[in-house]
Design brief:
Layout lengths: L4 H19 L11 E5 L3 H8 L18 E5 L2 H10 L2 H11 L16 E2 L5 E4 L5 H14 L3 E6 L3 H8 L3 E6 L1 H8 L2
Helix pairs in contact: 2-6
Amino acid sequence: MKWRYKSEMRVKTLMWSVLCQQRLPRQYHSDTVQGVVLEESMELAFQMLTSTGGTKHDYFMLDGSYDHFFFLTNDHQGEVLLALLCDPVKTAQLNGILQQGLTSKGVNRAVEHDAFEADGTPVLFGYFCDLPRITRFNSALDLMECSGTLICFDYQADVLRRYCGNRVRFQTIDFIKFERRLFP
């Protein structure tokens, strides 16, 4: 996938100035400009997570231009995930379910996280497949030589497991059960 960094930054700046400053300043703030990629399968997510930009730096690379960059499959699962992404009430409901048995207080606050297990292991809710967050979580675990837990949907787990390796333990959410409960 070809990607021109300067073009991406121009689009982000244009969106920010038009949406956040001119057209809808009360609804959108500068931190609400986020990236979304729609793809047929999760395989491209692995390529995006591991890309270094190529020798000419004209391939996609997670470079910090977006704090949040969501990877959604272009199918029913992606549509449901997009609906969840746009619904803060249902997102909070899912996070509340996932936080049961976890704590918000932990020893290791330098790692991107959403909660901690009782033993202090950081836990990331990765079900939105927010590529920069997953990268920050995985990189911090590597740097600190510790382990963590990533919670994602069952259809996302294989690709994310390949990217994260052995440091990350995975807990999966059964997509069908999730959909029945939150999107009946």
